[in-house]
Amino acid sequence: MDKLLKYKTLVKEVLASYARQGAVEPDSKEHLETQLLFDDTNLHYQVLRIGWQGIQNTFSVIFHIDIKDGKIWVQRNISDYDIIGDLEAKGIPKEDIVLAFYSPKMRPYTGYAEA
Amino acid sequence: MDKLLKYKTLVKEVLASYARQGAVEPDSKEHLETQLLFDDTNLHYQVLRIGWQGIQNTFSVIFHIDIKDGKIWVQRNISDYDIIGDLEAKGIPKEDIVLAFYSPKMRPYTGYAEA
After folding, report:
1. How many A/B residue pairs have CB atoms within 8 Å?
2. Which helix (H) or strand (E) is B15 found in, with range?
3. Helical H runs in chain A?
4. CA distance B1 to chain A (A)
5. I need a labelling partner for A27 at 20 to 30 A (CA). Which of A42, A78, A100, B22 fits?
6. Which residues numbered 20-59 in A keep a CB inside 8 Å of some CB on B?
7. pLDDT per residue over B56-73, tens digit each?
8. Which residue in B36, B44, B55 is closest to A35 by CB distance?
9. Which of B6 and A22 is assigned the larger pLDDT?
10. What is the pTM of this model?
């Protein structure tokens, strides 16, 4: 399998697994859902919590990952899941992971790819 | 063209057009970009501003639209574009548009579909 296809597949597997575990329990009174946004053309991947619980509106991007120049850019993770560790455990080397939530200036100090 | 295909095409056209008009000017010093997330399988569509300008991190979902049960659900629009008006101008009837940023309880008063 070529690297891009492997990375696309892996990112989608990991995010779908997190989304299943963290999914809102279906409840006919609630209008809250967990969405997957997987764009294999533009190479953007997202898990989103969205909707209504009574008077409370939720619109919250839990994960956002891009694949760019053959690397996995973790742009956002507001969950308790260790996505970096899980990607490495699945064989992605540090030099193919960008901690994009750190500024370009700080990235040389992360031990991961700068860009 | 069947209705679902028509609505998918139209939503993508409108969002891509907004994204082009509002796109960040390319600047080698900046790390800010406008992204399109188009998921034709799960029927979620998004425009996102993401990245870094100096020490400032941006992660901002400008538009989020779902297609559900044959209707266009406008979940979010934090831009100045009149997306509802533009969808109607392109021939989408009010009964196929859900103002999902209003709570289910308030939707009967919007003049658009409730769900």
Report:
1. 62
2. helix B3-22
3. 3-22, 83-89
4. 23
5. A78
6. 31, 35-39, 41-42, 44, 46, 48, 50-52, 54-55, 57, 59
7. 999 999 999 999 999 999
8. B44
9. B6
10. 0.94
